[in-house]
Amino acid sequence: MAKAWHSQISIKGQVLYDWPKGWCENKLRLSENDDAQDVLYDVAIIGAGVVGCALAYHLSQYQLKILLLDKNHDVGEGTSKANSAIIHTGFDATPGTLESRLVTRASHMWPGVAKELKIPMQQSSAMVLALTKEEETLLPELLKKSIQNGVEDVRLVSGDEARKLEPNISEAVKGALCVDRESIIDPFTTSVAFAEIAVINGANLILGLTVTSISNTETGDKSLHSSGGRQFKARTVVNAAGLGSTTIGRSYGAKPLDINPRRGQFLVYDKTASSAVSRILLPVPNPKTKGILISPTIFGNIIAGPTAEDLPFNEASTPETTPEGMALIKSGAARLYPRILSEPPISAYAGLRCHCQQGQYQITYNDGLEGVVTLTGIRSTGLTVSVALAETVREGLENECGLDCKPDENAIHGRHESARPGWVIPRPFENNEKLRENPDYAHIVCFCEQISRQEVINAIHSPLSPRSIDAIRRRTRSASGRCQGFYCLIGIAQMISESTGTELNYITKKGPGSEIIMDSINR
Amino acid sequence: MEFIQKQVVIIGAGPSGISAALRLKQAGFKDILLLDRFSRIGGIPGKYSHHGKPTFVRWTKGHVLHGLDYADQLLKKINRAEIETRLETTVLAISPESKEIQAVSAQNGFYGIKAEVILLACGAREKTSVERGRLFGSRPARVYQTLHLLELISRSSGLLPANYCLLGSEVISYSLMEKLEHIGSTPLIIDFEKSATCSIFSRFYFSRKSSTRRIPSVREINIQGQKGLERIHLENNQSESISTDYLILSGNLIPNTELLAAAGIPFKTESRKIQPEALEEQQNHGIFITGNMKGTAFGGERAYFSGYLTAGKIIDYLK
Question: In Å, how far is B110's CA from the nearest CA of chain A?
């Protein structure tokens, strides 16, 4: 694999940025390629989070013209990149709900999907730990609930047995529920993989574009309007814009919903802490909250979190970490694994869950307008259900909105390589023949994660044409290790600049407005 | 995998690694290999470019040497002593029991090195914002560490005047402050500490012509900005909200311990210092640690002296 897999594939769809001139190459700018606006799309999906991307991926297996839009400047840049990265079995869902059915179904689909799409995933399994006598009495209930949810491969163990499996858990553990199929995944690669395949199959992806309203056209199709005055036409529209869905919803007379951000903060620990814990450790849930969990990550770190703070609705909500949140995480995590307090955290992040007061999993077909689907209130399990939800929504579009879905034999449904270097194929630098072919695979630029220059360049030229530093970081792990880019951050920016012919002062962390240098262009 | 044999392998061609190499060569040990993952020797001092004001590195000789000049001096010494050096070489793994190293470079490919003595001179880095513990809020662009700013100063056509906030009051913070003043931006210095960390002489040297304001005893910093940094909110005796374009987290060095961790050599988790017993044990086996990587004292001159002392221990070991 001296050449990146995507350099040998023809990409049928377009990736375009609604960016001003100078921030990226003209061939990627919507202004220079407005033929993307002339197409009558069969489905327009607003929101390229994991739910929107999974839907685009699934629909791209059919002969449909698909448009995927996001106001952010990469796919999966909202809540989809700031969760616990767990593929749930559904053992603790509320039995009988749509969420429960979707999670249970999706959890059986995931091993196959991860393998085909080369998404790093590992069945690390989970243990729900009872720390008090009362909690211990709740474990049999949890077991019963799990079986009601269709998750039967669970078992109860004693405190001592739990400590044999995980020697570093608290001495106070009285018993545990083992959930073997609970798994950890690379959440960044998930959205990217779905979107890449959709675009390769012909979907158009437009980033940096905020849809403000949807209206009918004379022909009965839908017209999508953007804040920049752009317009797109589609036969059907799926509003999967998460926290942004209600504002758009009001424009087409959607069923009124009260959505607010429910923030979840996480702490990330150095890889040196990783040997201590090999399973996902969960507390016994109480009626208020699922609690603070500890989980290994697919990258070799340990994370602890999340908190659950309901925030007022605000269009411009930015996820933030708080001192109270960090303290809550540390004390919650220390209950399960006491030594965590002496581990140094390397990073922290926060995600905003799409919390809907009227209830989770709001899927409404022909909501206010014929052909418009509102798909919102997805939280806690969005990453897991994405693959199953995509199928469900496709069926809904067929049955409720009359979408004609004919399979496309030429569509691809897998990838040859992971976006995470070395996951499926050995790291390039382990093979001297490959190094002779391309010495840039031996030039390590991110020392903490051991990522080579060529791998970063491959990511820059990957099918979604990522142009921001954060987008490159999520695909390659560069600047995401223990030093958080101390040595390589500016080098990464330099590589984006050189590979794309963009001046360094136009290189951004996460799109226009987040330039790495304060200049006359962004003052 | 192919292996080469060396008597002494030094990982890190910064002041401490070079100093050790020079002393060992002088003592008659010829089979030395010096490795560095960067494209030039000199470690951190080599990162202080000619743009901006000189950097305060050689204090004892009574004058100020620019970082790059110091690195050039070290390079001359290495060349004169004819010490074999491989640059842009990353050490991927180290096996302390067998004293084997796995390395990769564009020039030499992927290969192994068997050594009698391994000297780790991997230096130190600044703590991340979360590691420092008192920074919260969002994650916008333009929150940097000192090294980022040094690279931006040298790579771009130079930074333009803007509002800069510097967190920290170590020598490195004042040195950076002087550089920023040189481009027309007097930064604001914020500090968690009550009194400035660096010596009064350093402070006098750097800030005698300056109009820098220093805000001490800050308890917490809340970073605000959706895309780019907009403002920081300080919790001290009064709450202050400061509009700024850049926030630079300077100082707070910790050793680069990845290779120690990979080798299973224990170190204190918070300070990253090697446990003295572990250090002793490794030295008896032929594995040494020197310079900033030891975590006891930081700085170019100190690292150079540390390398010299450790070379003495290596000489004893090899005899």
Answer: 6
